[in-house]
């Protein structure tokens, strides 16, 4: 009889005691219980006696014999790993006499059993296995040998070298192929190789949105992102974006190093390509240096900062990158933001003053006082997760950084130093690192006062530090007392247990035993009544009849249960009292954290003298920044009452969002306080004084204005090209839908038709004058300022009559024709097709078709090349025609781009 299925209680008991996995080992435990008649104790003992043997015995393992046996289940393989039986059971084995039939010559007394009804080939295998280790060749072997001989002869006739045939008998004891799970202990490394499981995906930063998706939102500030050439994540772009919105910081960054005569141009600079100086280009062309020599070819540090500030000033793009500046910072792996300040201060000690603060490190106790002055531009604040139990505001966080030694050691030791601010910069940057605080319990103020850390507040700071130390010591004492209430040590084993857990388990066990006594006494009452169901329909409602001994046990159990419950109540009350004391002490810490943070407090003996700092921006992830932009003051204010000029923006670049990769959102500070924690990154805070925010903005130098204008013109051409390509695709689709295939085929063979098609469609994708920077080998070179060439000026001013098809001829299409050249005739009998708008900003201009009786004149003697071949007759793309040919020499400067573009 099959073993009974074990109960779930028995399975759970074994799993709990043996600490096995309740999911993966459940089937093993069930099999063990079935094999031991459900005896959980025997199973547990077997487990602890031999765990490996237990698993091997009761775990379902791979059965290799099924792959080696015959179809009837027998296994006569004689050392062969696997045997595939032929579908034809009447194959003849050469050289072997088959054995007689098992059933003999007489009729059997009963039908043969399936186990004895062997196939002819199987019987022959059984017979040959007894007589020889290596059987004679079969018909299949003979066929394989013939096939191999034919292949060798064909290869030799074709001149292909083949390995020599082995002679003799192959060792039959060699191990055959193994068919089963991969459970070997080791494998030959040469037999392994890494192959891609899926198609390689393009990284997120390799994707570049279209120009229309990168256009700057009206009123929104531009911002800088990390870029795709940086080796580590950083927030340098967000920091520079915020500093640009502080006029004093912006002016200081522009003043560093002095203005350059030319800032060059590169259409891919916004994506991270360098712009080389003219003298560097000259040395490269002369072969004096190579691009591998970064010390000679790298851009100037200050000039790259100037480009970024000008870009943020007046760009039409929504974002750019700081990849070039990142590569100019030495040792960026140690924190590019901090290294940027150090590099800038080393090269520009005067311009860095508004961005730097000075700290004095002095001894706490009297005696020989040793002061040390330290300057920094970025204060790094790092805390562990456990420290945020005492830190709830930004002020308290800085307290533990400025006064960290004193708060850590408790009583000040000899030589312990404390920090004071001697000067606080007009811009104050706090870089939070380490673990994240609880967003619901950490406060970042919008208005910040560093009064408590000033040098003239040394006495007040010592009193606050003393109070901080007292509160932290009191909290430590209360937390230790709470642990003593919970912990109880086992005297025999030394293991510490939780008093509450032990009391709860004891209460549960004794209540179960008391319930057992009650049930047994009630059952006794029912049994004495002869199990009278009329008198006692439910035994649980019967009156208990306990013996004297049971009554004593019952009363004693009640006393134990009351004691354990009283113990739990006592511990809970004491813990509540300790928590109340903790709340009072933490409330005192909150009071300490608010001291000297509000200048409007009355009755203060010494008024606050520090500047008021406003939060101007928060940088979170490498491509997300929160910026507070101050609108210019309006001369006429139509609104009643004061109106805030500050507007918070959340600027983000999301590369994997194809629909909206650039996001610009208007927020208020309450929304900002919530959203900054959703990026799961410690924020970088930038504060600035009111004076720094209200400083007038210095105008850009002329060279920088030319640089940003050229950048905007390139971007305008990108937008025009995108719009034109979309419009032409729609136009070509409409024309191809109306023209039959036969007409298109014959029309394409005619040069005149090609000219007409080109004029009517107005498409010239290879026009150099419309895209002066495309396909140029000197995109990063500043060129000589010059007036547009006469051909370009004529192309901009020529008024071309509309074609019959209703599509205007572009001026660039006729720029390559010589004087006297006239436009080719339009296609006949083509109805006008109004193009559909490709975007909200695209407004297709459809001109009225001329009368068929007045076709545009055409010169039969024209020798100009066809429009399709004009790029062959034009100068190379990197040669720019100069309107003034009398200039002596060539001066490399910013590129001048025509204002006209489509």
General description of the model:
With 902 residues, the protein is an alpha+beta fold. Among the domains are: 8-58, no CATH class; 355-485, no CATH class; 490-589; 703-873, no CATH class. Helices cover 37% and strands 9% of the residues. The protein is built from 26 helices and 15 strands. Strands 5, 7, 8, 11, 12, 13, 14 and 15 form an eight-stranded mixed sheet that branches. A three-stranded antiparallel sheet has the order 4-3-6. Strand 3 (357-363) and strand 4 form a beta hairpin. Helix 2 packs across helix 4 (51-58) and helix 18 (499-528) runs antiparallel to helix 19. Residues 76-98, 100-109, 127-135, 166-175, 198-204 and 738-902 have low confidence and may be disordered.
Sketch the major β-sheet.
8 strands, mixed
Q: How large, in whole angstroms, is the Cα Rg?
A: 45 Å
Number of helical elements: 26
Strand content: 5-15%
Q: Structural class of the secondary elements?
A: alpha+beta
Distance between the termini: 91 Å
Helix and strand arrangement:
Layout: H1 8-18, H2 26-35, H3 40-49, H4 51-58, H5 65-68, H6 120-131, H7 139-157, E1 223-225, H8 236-244, H9 247-255, H10 278-286, H11 294-297, H12 301-314, E2 319-321, H13 323-328, H14 336-347, E3 357-363, E4 372-376, E5 378-383, H15 394-402, H16 404-409, E6 417-423, E7 427-434, E8 447-448, H17 458-486, E9 487-489, E10 496-498, H18 499-528, H19 548-594, E11 613-619, E12 624-630, E13 646-653, E14 662-667, H20 669-675, E15 684-689, H21 690-694, H22 702-738, H23 741-748, H24 751-761, H25 790-797, H26 870-873
Parallel strand pairs: 1-2, 5-7
Antiparallel strand pairs: 3-4, 3-6, 7-15, 8-11, 9-10, 11-12, 11-15, 12-13, 13-14
Helix pairs in contact: 1-2, 1-3, 2-4, 3-4, 12-22, 17-19, 18-19
């Amino acid at each position: 009889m099959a073993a009974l299925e074990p109960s779930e209680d028995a399975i759970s008991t074994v799993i709990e005691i043996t600490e096995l996995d309740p999911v993966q080992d459940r089937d093993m435990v069930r099999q063990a219980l079935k094999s031991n008649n459900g005896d959980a104790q025997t199973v547990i003992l077997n487990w602890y006696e031999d765990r490996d043997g237990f698993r091997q015995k009761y775990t379902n393992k791979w059965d290799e014999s099924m792959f080696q046996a015959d179809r009837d289940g027998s296994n006569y393989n004689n050392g062969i790993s696997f045997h595939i039986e032929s579908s034809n059971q009447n194959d003849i084995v050469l050289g072997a006499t088959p054995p007689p039939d098992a059933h003999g010559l007489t009729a059997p007394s009963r039908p043969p059993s399936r186990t004895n009804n062997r196939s002819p080939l199987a019987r022959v295998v059984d017979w040959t296995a007894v007589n020889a280790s290596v059987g004679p060749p079969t018909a299949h072997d003979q066929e394989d040998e013939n096939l191999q001989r034919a292949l060798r002869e064909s290869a030799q006739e074709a001149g292909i070298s083949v390995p020599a045939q082995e002679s003799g008998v192959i060792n039959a004891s060699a191990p055959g192929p193994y068919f089963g799970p991969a459970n070997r202990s080791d494998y030959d490394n040469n037999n392994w190789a890494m192959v891609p499981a899926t198609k390689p995906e393009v990284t997120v930063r390799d994707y570049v949105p279209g120009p229309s998706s990168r256009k700057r939102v009206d009123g929104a500030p531009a911002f800088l992102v990390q870029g795709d050439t940086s080796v580590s994540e950083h927030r340098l772009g967000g920091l520079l974006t915020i500093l640009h919105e502080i006029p004093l910081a912006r002016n200081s960054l522009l003043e560093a190093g002095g203005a350059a005569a030319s800032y060059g141009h590169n259409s891919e600079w916004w994506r991270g390509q360098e712009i080389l100086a003219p003298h560097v280009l000259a040395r490269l062309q002369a072969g004096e240096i190579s691009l591998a020599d970064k010390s000679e070819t790298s851009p100037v540090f200050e000039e790259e900062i100037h480009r970024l500030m000008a870009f943020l000033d007046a760009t039409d793009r929504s974002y750019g990158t700081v990849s070039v500046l990142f590569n100019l910072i030495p040792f960026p792996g140690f924190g590019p933001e901090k290294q940027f300040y150090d590099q800038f201060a080393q090269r520009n000690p005067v311009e860095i003053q508004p961005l730097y603060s000075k700290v004095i490190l002095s001894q706490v106790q009297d005696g020989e006082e040793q002061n040390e002055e330290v300057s920094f531009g970025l204060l790094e604040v790092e805390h562990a997760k456990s420290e945020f139990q005492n830190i709830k505001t930004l002020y308290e966080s800085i307290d533990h950084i400025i006064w960290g030694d004193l708060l850590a050691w408790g009583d000040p030791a000899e030589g312990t130093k404390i920090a004071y601010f001697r000067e606080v910069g007009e811009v104050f940057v706090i870089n939070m690192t380490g673990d994240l605080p609880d967003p619901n319990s950490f406060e970042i103020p919008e208005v910040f006062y560093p009064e408590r850390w000033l040098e003239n507040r040394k006495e007040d700071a010592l009193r606050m530090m003393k109070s901080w130390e007292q509160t932290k010591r009191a909290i430590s004492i209360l937390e230790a007392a709470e642990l003593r209430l919970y912990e109880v040590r086992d005297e025999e084993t030394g293991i510490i247990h939780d008093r509450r857990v032990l009391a709860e388990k004891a209460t549960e066990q004794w209540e179960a035993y008391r319930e057992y006594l009650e049930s047994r006494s009630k059952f006794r009452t029912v049994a004495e009544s002869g199990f009278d169901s009329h008198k006692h329909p439910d035994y649980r409602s019967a009156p208990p009849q306990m013996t004297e001994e049971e009554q004593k046990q019952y009363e004693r159990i009640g006393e134990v249960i009351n004691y354990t419950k009283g113990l739990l109540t006592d511990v809970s009350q004491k813990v509540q009292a300790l928590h109340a004391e903790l709340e009072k002490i933490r409330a005192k810490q909150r009071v300490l954290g608010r001291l000297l943070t509000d200048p409007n407090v009355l009755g203060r003996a010494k008024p606050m003298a520090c500047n008021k700092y406003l939060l101007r921006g928060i940088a979170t992830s490498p491509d997300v920044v929160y910026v507070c932009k101050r609108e210019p003051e309006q001369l006429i204010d139509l609104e009643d009452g004061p109106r805030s000029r500050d507007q918070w923006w959340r600027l983000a670049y999301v590369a994997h969002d194809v629909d909206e990769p650039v996001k610009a959102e208007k927020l208020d500070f309450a929304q900002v306080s919530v959203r900054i924690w959703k990026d799961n990154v410690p924020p970088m805070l930038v504060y600035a004084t009111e004076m720094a925010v209200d400083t007038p903005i210095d105008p850009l130098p002329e060279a920088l204005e030319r640089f940003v204008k050229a950048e905007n013109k390139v971007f305008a051409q990108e937008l025009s090209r995108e719009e034109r390509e979309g419009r032409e695709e729609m136009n070509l689709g409409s024309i191809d839908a109306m023209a039959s295939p036969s007409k298109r085929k014959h029309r394409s063979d005619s040069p005149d038709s090609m000219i007409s098609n080109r004029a009517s469609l107005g498409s010239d994708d290879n026009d150099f004058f419309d895209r002066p920077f495309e396909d140029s080998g000197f995109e990063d070179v500043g060129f000589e300022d010059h007036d547009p060439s006469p051909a370009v000026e004529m192309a901009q001013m020529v008024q071309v009559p509309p074609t019959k098809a209703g599509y205007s001829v572009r001026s660039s299409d006729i720029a390559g024709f010589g004087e006297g050249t006239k436009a080719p005739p339009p296609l006949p009998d083509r109805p006008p097709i109004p193009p559909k708008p490709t975007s909200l900003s695209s407004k297709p201009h459809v001109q009225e078709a001329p009368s068929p009786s007045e076709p545009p004149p055409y010169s039969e003697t024209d020798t100009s090349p066809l429009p399709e071949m004009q790029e062959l007759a034009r100068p190379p793309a990197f040669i720019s025609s100069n309107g003034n040919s009398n200039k002596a020499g060539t001066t490399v400067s910013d590129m001048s781009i025509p204002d006209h573009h489509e």
